[in-house]
Each structure stands twice: as C-alpha cells, then as structure tokens.
Design a protein that fits this description.
Shape: globular
Order of helices and strands: EHEEEEEHH
Distance between the termini: 23 Å
Number of strands: 6
Radius of gyration: 16 Å
Helix content: 10-25%
C-alpha cells in the first residue's frame, strides 16, 4: 500500500492471500471481517500530530464478514456513515490495493470526491493487469 503523508492508519489487517494459496477457514474468519483497515487524516496542532476526528475516514471491510462468497468494500466516509461519497467493491486484493492507493493519492492532491468516484467506477480503471508487486532484485 502507498498511503501518502497526512493519513494515520488506525488499524490494518489487510492481508494478501495469493490465488495459489487460499486462506484456511481460520485465516478467512480472522482476516475477512468487516473491520480490515481504517485510516483518518492527521493534522499538526502546533504541539504535535493528531487525528482529525472531523475529517474523512477510509474504511475497508469484507462483506458479509467471514463469508467466502463476500467481497471487499472500500469506502470514504464523510461526516458519518450516512454520507459515503466514494465506494469501491471487488474480490481481488490487488484491485482493492490499487483503489486504496488511488483514493488516498487523489484526496491528498485535493481532488473532489465526485471525480474520485468516477475514476474508481470507470470500467477502464482495472484495465492494467493486477499482479502482485515484483520482489526486489538481489543486490
């Protein structure tokens, strides 16, 4: 994940399970719940950094929680759960990673949520093959 400066990861259990090595039932139960990742904006208060509790929240979960037939749901929550201006759903963890990277980058650049929502829901968004990152070359 590439979460830019200005965000605090409150919790994160977002795990990759390669397609050739699916999670066991116990791993699925532990890592495919409704609370996978939460991030909030942080701001410098003059005395230190603090989570801005009045700002956007990024939430990632698996819905329905624990259901092998479920899907990841990435949301931007603004002013409470009644206002979700950006949502992305997909079963592939690499698609979700790309959406999360795009969402945080565009928010950090000051892009409007309507534009971000259009980008993430555009069918061409996932045209680039989704593969795990290459391991670093040996030195």
């Amino acid at each position: 994940m590439r979460i830019p400066a200005g965000w605090a990861v409150i919790f994160n259990i977002f795990m990759e399970f390669p397609s050739g090595d699916p999670p066991t039932p116990a791993e699925f139960e532990a890592y495919r719940g409704e609370d996978i990742l939460s991030a909030q904006r942080i701001a410098f208060t003059g005395e230190g950094w603090a989570v801005d509790t009045s700002a956007d929240v990024i939430d990632l979960g698996w819905y329905p929680g624990g259901d092998p037939d479920g899907t990841y749901r990435l949301c931007l929550v603004r002013d409470g759960w009644d206002n979700i201006p950006v949502q992305f759903e997909h079963r592939d963890c690499y698609a979700v990673q790309k959406a999360l990277d795009t969402l945080t980058r565009m928010l950090s650049e000051g892009k409007r949520t309507a534009l971000i929502a259009r980008v993430l829901t555009d069918p061409r968004f996932l045209d680039v093959p989704l593969e795990p990152p290459e391991p670093p070359a040996p030195a």
